[in-house]
Amino acid sequence: MTGLEQNLVAWALASAWRGMPLYPLHGPVVLTGRTGDGAMAALGDKLMEDARTVTQTVRETLKEWQARPPASNNAAVNELLAYATRDVARR
To answer: Which ranges constitute the DSSP H helices of 34-72?
Structure first.
């Protein structure tokens, strides 16, 4: 984590997929799918669309927060996770 920025997109996406807030993620991430035996595979269409949608939502939310900051860090976490969960559930 030293020197790496928090990756809100990766955090929001992983948390939405898991259905609960996870620990913070920092730096670049690589998303892969996996086969039944655990080998890496390409992401399926739904997961790829989830990643695109949540990325856009996080960008829009961060831009909105410049004009209307969240009341607290906890409020920010809850808001971002709610949006990501909504985006993942739509598909």
So the answer is: 45-67
